[in-house]
Design brief:
The protein has three helices and five strands; from the N terminus they run ααβββαββ. By secondary structure, it is of the alpha+beta class. The chain has a domain at about 50-85. Helix 2 crosses helix 3.
């Protein structure tokens, strides 16, 4: 009797674990396929610049042509032109 009860409890436990459980859905984040729509190219445009993308081997490299006509790496431009302040937000630094 005790063996039947233990087996019944084990069977119930196993079926309750597998019943209705589906594999978790894997959500793949959406990243830009190229450097056309990145924070750096958007920052470039917000500063009045024109972004462009050039191939370098297997890589796409984003450039920013600034208002003054200087062509620079878009990510470096954004890094150089922004600073993290104590609040954790990013503010533009005005170029003199």
């Amino acid at each position: 009797m005790q063996k039947i009860m233990i087996l019944s409890v084990m069977a119930l436990a196993l079926t309750s674990c597998s019943f209705g459980n589906k594999a978790p859905e894997v959500v793949t984040p959406i990243y830009p396929q190229s450097q056309n729509e990145t924070p750096a190219t958007k920052f470039c445009a917000s500063q009045g610049g024109q972004s462009s993308v050039e191939k370098s081997g297997a890589l796409d490299i984003a450039y920013c042509t600034t208002k003054t006509g200087e062509k620079v790496d878009a990510w470096k431009y954004m890094s150089d032109m922004t600073t993290v302040v104590a609040t954790g937000t990013t503010d533009s630094v005005s170029a003199q």
